[in-house]
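Anyone opening a protein record will find just a pair of labelled lines. The record below illustrates this layout.
***
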Amino acid sequence: MGQHKRIILAALITGVVLMLAKFVAYILTASNFVLTDAAESIVNVVASAFAFFSIHLSAQPRDHNHPYGHGKVEFFSVFIEGSLISIAAIIIIIKSVYGIFHPAAVHDLITGAIIIGATGLINGTLGLYLVKKGKALQSITIYADGKHLLADMFTSIGLVAGLLLIHFTAILWLDSLLSIAVALYILYSGYRLVRRSVSGLMDEADFEVVTKLLEVLNKKRQVEWIDIHNFRAQKYGNELHVDCHLTLPNYFDLNRVHEEMKRVDRLINNEVTKTELFIHADPCVPQCCHYCSMPNCPIRSEAKTEDITWTMDKIIRNQKHFE
């Protein structure tokens, strides 16, 4: 079993145990506030189960129907997790609004607070671990699961404070009012997950990765690399795919062209992230001379007069820098 699967399986098992603990707390307290957390735990378990499946599928080798692999299924996992969280939050808000006008008795709030506090501590520890591993393994599914658990930890902190407040004030309608506040936070968390999944499915640029890539390319730029253009980056699970055109001196033979493309590939993979590059080699033309740094060029038509920094605006255009 791969590392991705082991991590998600551990999160799934932990989620089941914590869900049962939270429903015990709800049975003891009869609190809508506690039910908010318990209901979200069902979502945690369902989402982790689907995440386990999506990671299993994304690890499958490429085939004729999926030439780029199965990595995008992870975005579906995050979409389902965010959607379920949002639905649970809306249901809790509806129930809590009713509870404001028809408050019910609550009891054993201290016991409930202890149980919820313990589950929050476990979720926080596991969430930090998943976020760290999600970044290291470049898995949006593991990262999203970690962020969700961290949100759950903060929810639990609010729950403990709220349960203690209700216990010491004996104001019953506070139970439903605080439930609405927490549910709104959960709804916002769900929206952020859905937003992130949609951006991945729509191949929205990952500006953090692309910015780092540009920083490294500019810093380690070789004189042979006259310009880079028609640059596109897409995420497929934990893999980044980059297409671009690289302008090289037109007198290079095929072996030299191939070597320069390999240098770009090694640079990005070693210093940025695991990347599959498709580089189209373009020959230089006389109009490139004014920004070309190639020394002792036998075909130079004019002296270099300009340094052009590679920026997002320049590299995404489907044209050389002079056009």
Observations:
- The domain at 3-201 is CATH 1.20.1510.10 (Alpha-lytic protease prodomain-like).
- The two ends are 52 Å apart (CA to CA).
